[in-house]
Design brief:
248 residues, 14-stranded antiparallel β-sheet, 19 strands, 6% helix
């Protein structure tokens, strides 16, 4: 679905993480959860993106599933399952790997494509497995899905975002993020509720894209909305929370 919009594996089914938390002696951690977002582009809803987060001690997995639904399914057939491995310690959140299985149909034939990015601590590199391409590991590197999740984590732990070095890792590029707006008060409304939600808006960008993120301070800074603008292709995709997250 989003593949047709952005033509990049990491843009498909962009899913954010959840913000409800538990407290340790050193850091606020993120619990196991499941939730979903409505995906909107061209002024219409294309379908839903669901995501599930599970941790076993420090080893965490974020799984994103996205596919078109309703009338959009007549025009878009792409779907994706994206799996992100993270390490959540007592004082940090570390990105380890990203894998995407993208499925599309053409002339009645199903096609699948794998995209894998892995952090290699020995060589201090991020490796694009399928293309044998590498980048140097940079501070606070995350893929396009988990970056909002990371910002949420840093906010919960009172890390000053304007002083953090954040980097986006894609299968085509690695770029540093620059914050343009931090904590601008706003209101959001969602289809599942008849009330407005207090929100804090963040705007940050890189050479390739611009991201607008709304966190919900009354719900432990859960990302309620995200808008992604592909500068190169002048295309936009928006995700709106379709339900409050469920703790697992």
């Amino acid at each position: 679905m989003a593949y047709l919009l952005f033509k990049r594996p990491l843009w498909i089914g962009l899913i954010l993480g959840f913000t409800f938390y538990t407290t340790t002696s050193l850091a606020t951690t993120l619990p196991n959860f499941k939730t979903s977002y409505n995906v909107n582009a061209f002024g219409v809803e294309l379908g839903k993106a669901t995501h599930q987060f599970n941790c076993e001690q420090e080893d965490c997995t974020l799984i994103s599933r996205a596919k078109p639904s309703g009338a959009a399914a007549l025009f878009f057939s792409d779907s994706s399952i994206e799996t992100i491995q993270l390490k959540q310690t007592k004082d940090n959140l570390i990105w380890l790997s990203y894998h995407k299985l993208g499925t599309s149909k053409k002339d009645g034939k199903k096609n699948q494509k794998h995209t894998t990015l892995k952090r290699n601590e020995t060589n201090k590199q991020v490796v694009f497995i399928e293309k044998n391409r590498t980048w140097s590991i940079q501070p606070n590197t995350f893929d396009i899905i988990s970056i909002s999740y990371a910002i949420q984590y840093f906010k919960l732990n009172n890390r000053p975002l304007e002083t953090l070095e954040l980097h986006i890792q894609d299968n085509n590029f690695q770029e540093k993020l620059t914050f343009k707006t931090i904590e601008q008060a706003d209101l959001l409304d969602f289809q599942f509720s008849n009330k407005n939600f207090n929100a804090l808006k963040y705007i940050f960008d890189s050479q390739q894209f611009k991201i607008e993120l709304w966190l919900l301070p009354d719900h432990q800074y859960f990302p309620g909305k995200i808008r992604l603008i592909n500068k190169k292709e002048d295309k936009t995709i928006t995700l709106n929370l379709s339900e409050l997250p469920k703790i697992l």
